[in-house]
């Protein structure tokens, strides 16, 4: 029996075991398998592990998407979570190459995936409060929002949760150093049903500013002279 003789449900089940690239390659072999690839039911879960993956034409966005994860752990991508004044020219150039990649992708998610239930973002240094605000406004069924090591996330995201996160049940802002204890307390007060976690966030020691570094350097020089 040829693979194309299988019924539609069997083909969908077969595709479900393949990663995005394998699905795309299989879909290129014949028209019927391309139609299976384009079935929205196949795309209820998406995981991405690098900026390059978001730019590949090997997946579909649509109302069937329920769970989305964008987790970048490579050393190069971690650079984007460093304060701009601490980056060298090479690091700045690298960040500029994909500074809008996640934001633009999440905008598409807002427009095409209203039934999203869970979103996990880790190491996405360019994601802003506005991105999360738009998601909360458009994905009204969102129940789980997990943010880890996203340097631009602040109390504005926490405020957006209190205003637009009616369906939210789980909120994590781990290693998001720019959220504050006051912001977390507002979430606890206004959304008591939300399970909130903020490991190494509000109480993290902020990065030293250049002026402070200069003052410390001058003070150390004086001590050496003495």
UniProtKB/TrEMBL annotation:
Output the superkingdom of the source species: Eukaryota
Q: Does the keyword Repeat apply?
A: no
Q: Which SMART domains match?
A: LRR_CC
Please report a single Pfam family linked to this protein: F-box
GO CC annotations, alphabetized: cytoplasm
The UniProt keyword set, sorted, is:
Ubl conjugation pathway
Q: Which InterPro entries match?
A: F-box-like_dom_sf, F-box_dom, F-box_LRR-repeat, Leu-rich_rpt_Cys-con_subtyp, LRR_dom_sf
First and last residue of the signal peptide:
none
Domain F-box, chain residue ranges per copy: 3-44
- Does the keyword Signal belong to this entry? no
The protein's name: FXL22 protein
Q: Which organism is it from?
A: Chloropsis hardwickii
């Amino acid at each position: 029996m040829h693979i194309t003789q299988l019924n539609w449900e069997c083909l969908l089940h077969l595709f479900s075991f393949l990663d995005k690239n394998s699905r795309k390659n299989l879909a290129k072999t014949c028209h019927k398998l391309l139609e299976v690839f384009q079935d929205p039911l196949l795309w209820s879960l998406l995981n991405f592990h690098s900026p390059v993956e978001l730019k590949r034409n090997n997946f579909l966005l649509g109302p069937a998407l329920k769970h989305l994860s964008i987790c970048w752990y490579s050393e190069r991508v971690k650079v984007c979570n460093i304060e701009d004044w601490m980056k060298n020219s090479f690091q700045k150039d690298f960040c500029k190459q994909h500074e809008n990649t996640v934001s633009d992708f999440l905008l598409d998610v807002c427009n095409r995936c209203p039934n999203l239930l869970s979103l996990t973002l880790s190491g996405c240094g360019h994601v802003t409060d506005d991105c999360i605000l738009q998601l909360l406004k458009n994905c009204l069924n969102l129940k789980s929002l997990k943010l880890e090591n996203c340097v631009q996330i602040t109390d504005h995201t926490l405020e957006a949760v209190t205003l637009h996160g009616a369906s939210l049940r789980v909120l994590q802002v781990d290693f998001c150093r720019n959220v504050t204890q006051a912001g977390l307390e507002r979430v606890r007060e206004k959304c008591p049903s939300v399970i909130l976690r903020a490991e190494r966030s509000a109480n993290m020691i902020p990065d030293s500013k250049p002026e402070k570094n200069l003052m410390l350097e001058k003070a150390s020089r004086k001590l050496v002279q003495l």
